[in-house]
From TrEMBL:
InterPro entries: CAP10 (IPR006598), Filamin/ABP280_repeat-like (IPR017868), Filamin/ABP280_rpt (IPR001298), Ig-like_fold (IPR013783), Ig_E-set (IPR014756), O-Glucosyltr/Glycosyltrsf_90 (IPR051091). Pfam families: Filamin, Glyco_transf_90. Filamin repeats lie at residues 20-128. It catalyses: L-seryl-[EGF-like domain protein] + UDP-alpha-D-glucose = 3-O-(beta-D-glucosyl)-L-seryl-[EGF-like domain protein] + UDP + H(+); L-seryl-[EGF-like domain protein] + UDP-alpha-D-xylose = 3-O-(beta-D-xylosyl)-L-seryl-[EGF-like domain protein] + UDP + H(+). GO terms for cellular component: endoplasmic reticulum lumen. Its main location: endoplasmic reticulum. PANTHER family: GLYCOSYL TRANSFERASE CAP10 DOMAIN-CONTAINING PROTEIN, KDEL LYS-ASP-GLU-LEU CONTAINING - RELATED. It comes from the Eukaryota. PROSITE patterns: FILAMIN_REPEAT. This is Glycosyl transferase CAP10 domain-containing protein.
């Protein structure tokens, strides 16, 4: 045996004994829109870290020795940039880093270090000025923005719903639409016009406070990109408006649509607001829900957990079923309003449980309330297995979800829920795989970047179909940018700095 082969055998022996839990800084992966903060401007920037060992396998347990992430840079007056950085531990060997900026920053650098070694391609040096989200620096070229954000193809739901209309001539629709839906006690609706990147609206109805959600996303987009001139109507209520049985179809934007309406679906005000207020006013968003879950799949209690109010008869039905199978369920109503006179049967109502603690349990139920359950994105992101009753109501992403791949479908009356729960308990590996696929879906399609992209693509596609001239209508209110800082929008770093 020659020396070389001795060395070779020795090498294999050493390789075999490599501890598989030892982190390889080099092989670990770092990715996400927060690494391109000069191009992708969001209220909170974020990126991911996946820990990988020396054999190039993912490590799936939390690290004992955490990463050090340092994000820094200088202001134009050469002071350190004010930034707030936070790390979320997903407890599965992966991490989310998010950060918020308060002022424009040059020479920005993102370092991810583990035990004194740079991870992946760290440090990441940003070669342009990086702006906070409240700078009014709209880029001129809409397509350049969607492509630098890597928005991908136009979501199929946008195309499908807009194709019903083909060309939209508002001069023909406008008055009829207002006349049909001007029912102040039943309908809340706003008419919007975007002209020269300024926003105008006029609302109809008694309860129009929710227009702030539409205002906020439009204002935020108008700071990033020059929006196409646009005219549209937004339904502020829960129920879709443009029902099949009306004599005419109307292109109305809604947060929830149904299989028997022509409304054009957009992300719910809930997920849109949590996108805009990430690291801000909201506690629950698509990232926080992943970093505040305590238990890994194996440690979660194998029961279906649910809390919510009595906004749907099927929810009462759920309570009924659970009483026959206490070993399978931990469910209760938190509030009686719609069926107050049945509280003595379906009560008592239970104490508040933090949404993050829902994921102490393996199984979740996305059951309709008045319409689709707006918690669905968060349920998927939490990594438990989601059971979803059939329903005619749809959020913007439902048509991309695949039953038995991303979630378990059940009948609307819940008659097969017990059997399917038993199946999940008996087939834990398969159940875990579906839960993980659901979480992966949420991370691919429902994060803040995706919510921004969906809106940009929706407005772009809509504008391509509107053939009437866009003018600011009589009595429309100007929705002004508030809380913006003054920024010099030239993002090239100048030499004298
Ligand atoms: C390792 O992790 C990455 C990032 O989370 C993921 O895309 C990939 O599928 C994982 N690989 C395996 C073999 O699980
Ligand atoms: C149901 O869940 C709540 C919240 O996690 C918990 O406090 C309670 O003990 C559970 N009930 C049962 C019967 O396990």
């Amino acid at each position: 045996m020659n020396l070389l082969s001795v060395a070779f055998i020795f090498h294999i022996l050493i390789d075999r004994t490599l501890p598989l839990t030892e982190v390889s800084a080099e092989l670990s992966k770092v990715w996400g829109p927060g690494l391109a903060p000069d191009k992708i401007i969001m209220p909170a920037r974020y990126f991911f870290i996946q820990v990988v060992n020396a054999a190039n396998n993912n490590i799936t347990t939390p690290l004992t020795e955490p990463f050090q992430v340092v994000i820094d840079g200088a202001t134009k007056t050469k002071k350190p940039c004010r930034l707030w950085t936070a790390m979320l531990d997903r407890r599965d060997g992966s991490y989310i880093v998010r950060y918020k900026m308060y002022e424009p920053c040059v020479y920005m650098k993102i370092s991810v270090v583990h035990e004194n070694k740079h991870v992946a391609q760290s440090p990441y040096i940003i070669n342009n000025v990086v702006y906070p989200e409240d700078c009014m620096c709209p880029k001129k070229n809409f397509n350049e923005v969607t492509s630098s954000w890597d928005c991908g193809l136009v979501p199929s739901e946008i195309t499908k719903r807009l194709n019903v209309f083909n060309k939209i001539h508002w001069d023909e629709y406008r008055d009829k639409l207002i006349k049909t839906f001007d029912r102040p006690h039943a309908v809340s609706l706003c008419h919007y016009v975007v002209k020269n990147n300024e926003i105008y609206r006029k609302c109809y109805g008694k309860y129009v406070g929710f227009n702030m959600f539409m205002d906020n996303i439009l204002l935020s987009l108008a700071r990033k990109v020059e929006l196409p001139d646009l005219e549209f109507f937004v339904n502020l209520g829960d129920w879709p408006l443009s029902l099949y049985n009306l004599p005419e179809k109307f292109p109305i934007l809604s947060w929830c649509v149904s299989t028997d309406s022509y409304d054009i679906v957009m992300p719910t005000y809930d997920i849109t607001e949590s996108t805009l207020e990430n690291m801000g006013r909201v506690m629950l968003d698509m990232l926080s829900v992943q970093g505040n879950v305590e238990a890994s799949w194996e440690d979660r209690i194998p029961k279906l957990f649910w809390r919510g109010r009595d906004s749907n008869r099927h929810r009462l039905n759920l309570i009924q079923i659970s009483r026959k199978y206490p070993e399978l369920f931990n469910v209760s109503l938190t509030n009686f309003f719609f069926y107050r006179d049945e509280e003595h049967i379906y009560g008592p109502k239970s104490d508040y449980v933090s949404f993050f603690n829902f994921f102490d349990y393996k199984y979740q139920l996305a059951i309709d309330g008045t319409v689709a359950p707006y918690r669905m994105p968060y349920l998927l992101a939490g990594g438990s297995l989601v059971f979803k009753p059939e329903s005619k109501y749809l959020e913007h992403f439902y048509s991309d979800l695949i039953p038995n791949v991303h979630y378990i479908p059940v009948k609307e009356d819940l008659s097969d829920l017990v059997d399917k729960l038993k199946w999940a308990i008996d087939n834990d590996d398969a159940a875990k795989e579906i839960a993980k696929a659901g979480q992966k879906f949420a991370n691919q399609y429902l994060l803040p970047k995706n919510i921004f992209c969906y809106h940009m693509q929706l407005f772009d596609e809509l504008s391509k179909r509107v053939v009437s001239t866009v003018t600011v209508g009589e009595g429309m209110e100007h929705v002004a940018q508030t809380k913006i800082q003054k920024c010099d929008c030239d993002d090239r770093i100048k030499d004298e700095l």
